[in-house]
Amino acid sequence: MMSTAIEFENIGKLYRLGLVGTGTLSHDLNRWWKTSILKQEDPYLKIGETNNRAQKGHSKYVWALKDITFNVEQGDVIGIIGKNGAGKSTLLKLLSRVTAPTVGTIRAKGRIASLLEVGTGFHPEMTGRENIYMNGCIMGMTRSEITRKLDEIVDFAGVERYLDTPVKRYSSGMTVRLGFAVAAFLEPEILVVDEVLAVGDAEFQKKAIGKMQDVSRGEGRTVLFVSHNMGSMQRLCKRGILLENGGIKFMGTISDTIKTYLSNQIIQKEFEGLDGNPDVLYLSKASIVSDDGQIFYNYSTITIVMEFSVKKQIGSLVVGFNLYSSFQSPLARADYNDENQYTSLAPGNYRLTFQIPPYSLSNGEYKIIFDIAEKDIRCYTTEQSYLTFTVVQGENCYGNVFAENNAIKSSIFRPKWFKELKQID
Q1: In the chain, fewer beta carbons within 10 Å around the N or the C end?
Q2: For residue 231, what is the enclosing H or E element?
Q3: What pLDDT is recorded for position 241?
Q4: Are the C-beta atoms of 392 and 262 separated by less than 8 Å?
Q5: Cα-to-chain-centroid distance, residue 201
Q6: What gap in Å lies between CA 423 and CA 340, rounded to an integer?
Q7: What is the overall mean pLDDT for the chain?
Q8: Would you say residue 391 has pLDDT above 70?
C-alpha cells in the first residue's frame, strides 16, 4: 500500500506588491509581535486580493496561492498546469523550502531535489564537479555516495569536457543538463521540476522525460512536474492539478486536467446557423475535431466538416475555407476542388469533410473562416461562420513554422486536404 509522500494543508502565500515587508516599521513590528510572540494570525492577511494579473486590484497585498489542499502518494507523478502567473512556481518553491507559506502546513516525507530555474543551487564560481558534491552534501549524502553516482551524472548531462570549468562559463542549456542530472541521480525521494527543461534541446528533453519515468515507475519516487508542453505532461504524469489565480480549479487524471485547461482556450469549435443566401447557397453547420479527443496536438489528425445547401444550379461553385494564424495572417487555403478551384453541384444538401494530416501545423492558435461563392461573382458567406482552435506542441514535435503573409491569394501553400463529399438529402 502506497503511503502519503506530500501533504499540502490549507496553504496560502501572501505577497505585498512593490515592497518587502509591510511598508512601514510600525506595521513590521506589529506583524512580528502578533505572529512570533503572541502566535496569532498575521493581522495583514485579511486585506489580500485574489492573484488575477489581468485585472487592476485595489489592495497592495496579493494571494499568490490560497486554500491549497491536496495529498501526493509515494511514487505518484503529478503535473501542475496553469497559465503564467497562476501560482505553479510558487507552489514548488514552497515545497522546496525556497520560501515559507504565509499560512498552512506542508509535510513531506524524504529528501527533496528541486530544479526550479536555470542554475538553481549552483555556485557560479565553483566547477561543475564541485557543485555536484556541494548539492549532494546539502541533500545529506556522504562523499562516497556522491562519488559512486558521479560518472552517471556526468554521462547523462553530457558535460564531461567542462566538468572542471566554473559553472558561470556554462550555457543555460549545459547548466540545466547538469542541474537535472544532479537532481535525478542523487536519489531524492521527491523530485520537483519546473519549466526549465524547455531550455534544453529536443534530445535532452527526451532523456529527461525518460529518466523521470524511470524514477517514478521503476524506483517508486515521487515527481512534481510543471510544464506547458501538454505532450510531455500526457506521457509522464498520472494525475494533474490545474491552478488558476492562485487556487485549485481542477484535480483529476492528467487527461481530464489537460482537457479542462484547454477548454478555456478553444473559443468556437462548432458553428450552427445560416450563413449565406437561403434561396441560393448557404452554410448550415461546421465543426472541427481531433483524433486525440479535445486536444489538438502537432501529431493529431484534424478533421473539419462543413454542411451546406445548394438551392439552384451554379456552374462555378467555390466551397472551402481559409486557415489563419492568431495574428490573422493567411496560412493556407483548402477547396472542394483544389485543382480548378471551382466545381458544379446539383441542388441539394451536402456534407464536405477535410482532413489535416499530422505534423502539418505548429503549436499555436488558429482560425478557420469558411466561404461558399460563385467564382469571380459573389461570396455568399460572411465571417460569422468560423472556427477557432489551439494546437498544442506534442513531445519533441515542433511542426512546421509558417511565415506571415497579407493576402489570401498568396497563402503559403494550398494543401489537398479534401477527403470526401456526400449528398445528405
Answers
A1: N
A2: helix 230-236
A3: 94
A4: yes
A5: 17
A6: 21
A7: 80
A8: yes
pLDDT of 164 reads 93
- Residues listed for the chain: 425
Q: DSSP readout, 142-174?
A: -HHHHHHHHHHHHHHHT-GGGTTSBGGGS-HHH
Nearest to 120 by CA among 25, 195, 27, 29: 195
Classify strands 112-115 and 190-193 as parallel, antiparallel or unpaired.
parallel
Does 336 score more than 70 pLDDT? yes
Nearest residue to 193 (alpha-carbon basis) of 208, 206, 210, 172 = 208
Q: What single-letter DSSP state applies at residue 402?
A: P
- The per-residue DSSP string of 24-72 comes to SHHHHHHHHIIIIIS-PPPTTGGG-EE--TTS--S-SEEEEEEEEEEEE
Give 129's contacts (C-beta < 8 A, 6+ positions apart): 150, 163, 164
The upper half-sphere exposure of residue 272, i.e. CA atoms within 13 Å in the direction of its Cβ, equals 1
Cell numbers found for residue 405: 503573409
Q: For residue 4, what are the CA distances in angstroms to 80, 94, 141?
A: 18, 18, 23
